[in-house]
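Bug #77: duplicate submission created two jobs. Keeping one. Sequence:
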Amino acid sequence: MSKKISLHEFQSYLAARLAGTSNQSSAGLLGVQAGPDYWLLDLADSGEIVPLTPLTEVPLTKPWFAGIANIRGNLHSVVDLSAFIGKEATPRNTSSRLLLIGTRHGSNAALLVNRMIGLRNVEALNPEAAAPDAHAWAPEAYTDNEGRRWSKLKVRELLADEAFMDIGV
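Kept job's structure:
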């Protein structure tokens, strides 16, 4: 490359390229791991992926609210996705990532996840019946050829969920 571009610009370029393909559903899913669970997000809704930065704890919040992160001068509320759904807290290590999900929807929200898996092709996944206790923001489920179960997270619905927005104890 003759000129340097930032990671954010590259991610935006990649998202625009994938959104412009004639078959977005086949290439437009991002896979992440949160606790023991695997999640799929539409690439257009997934937002920017950043390494875990220092988080400022906020007193009198629920245990799944990880804190506030300063990402290039903008404050983002960070929710530990695994803890939010009632599983173990996400370990904070070098593979942990923040997925900035709210920017497109007018909210500075981020999800703390164990790791990024990468792009997934929905055509390579087998649709499964959703769990009876599935959240409204995760109505679809799939399995891959390795037997892993994937849930599809709908960002807009998650951001509209009252439980997600109610961080106070």
